[in-house]
Specification:
eight-stranded mixed β-sheet, alpha+beta, 5 helices, Glutaredoxin
Length: 191
């Protein structure tokens, strides 16, 4: 009888261990998804560091060129699917709010200038896309507190304060909801 109980206990332990191992080896597509809201990493991160890079035409561009304007600063790559899916949101936001003082700036990370140019042409991106030597771009990312995944997007107000940082893909309403926090006061609001 003792041998039968020992065998049953051993079988139960092996079955439990097998089930635990099977649940840990689920296919990647079944992995639990993180809510985009959970990827809003931080608010009110302090002053936005100035930087200088070149655009796809070789023109030097600095953050300080956009003094008094709200900036959506997006670290992205044309080869990364979430970046590709976010780009139309930024195009639409820029078109809808540029007269209110919004600028969108993309910093291309890791892909060649030719890949960025091809993407910009194919998707009719009309906001500045900047690029630079990998070590320079890495230094800018570090100055902003680090960019561990792309896309990572910083919302910067007209006073050059980082109001919000989003990591990973977010849909257009997530960014739209933050626009009142970064757009400069309208010229007629003081009347």
């Amino acid at each position: 009888m003792t041998t039968a109980r020992l065998t049953t206990a051993m079988a139960t332990i092996l079955l439990a261990a097998g089930l635990a191992a099977m649940s840990a080896c689920r296919p990647e597509e079944e992995a639990p998804r993180v809510s985009p809201d959970a990827l809003v990493v931080a608010d009110n991160l302090g002053p936005a560091p100035d930087f200088t890079l070149v655009d796809l035409d070789g023109k030097t561009v600095s953050l300080s060129d956009f003094k008094g304007q709200a900036v959506i600063l997006n670290f992205w790559a044309p080869s990364v699917d979430p970046c590709v899916r976010e780009t139309p949101h930024f195009i639409e936001l820029y078109e809808a709010h540029r007269d209110a003082g919004l600028v969108v700036i993309g910093i291309s990370v890791g892909d060649s200038p030719d890949a960025a140019r091809a993407f910009v042409a194919e998707h009719s991106v009309d906001y500045p896309i900047l690029q630079g030597d990998e070590s320079v771009v890495r230094g800018i990312a570090e100055a902003y507190g680090g960019v561990s995944i792309i896309p990572t997007t910083f919302l910067i107000d007209a006073e050059r304060q980082i109001v919000r940082r989003f990591m990973g893909y977010h849909d257009k309403p997530a960014f739209e909801a933050s626009l009142p926090d970064i757009l400069p006061p309208s010229a007629d609001s003081g009347s």
